[in-house]
Amino acid sequence: MNKFPVLHNTLLLDTLESKKTPRPPVWMMRQAGRYLPEYMELSKKYSFFERVKTPELACEITLQPIDIIGTDAAILFSDILVILECLGIEVQLKPGLGPYIPFPIRSSKDMNKIKIHPAKESLDYVYKALSLTRQELNGRVPLIGFAGGPWTLFCYLVEGQGSKTFSLAKQFIFSDPKSAHHVLQILTNQTIEYFHEQVKAGAQVLQIFESWAAALGPDDFMTHAYPFLKQIVNEDYGVPMILFAKDAEWCYPDFQDEGVKGFGISWGCTPENARFLAGNKTVQGNYDPSKLMSTPDIITKEVTEMIERFGTHRFIANLGHGILPNVPVDNARAFVEAIKNYQSPS
Question: What's the pTM value of the predicted model, to 2 decimals?
Answer without folding.
Answer: 0.97
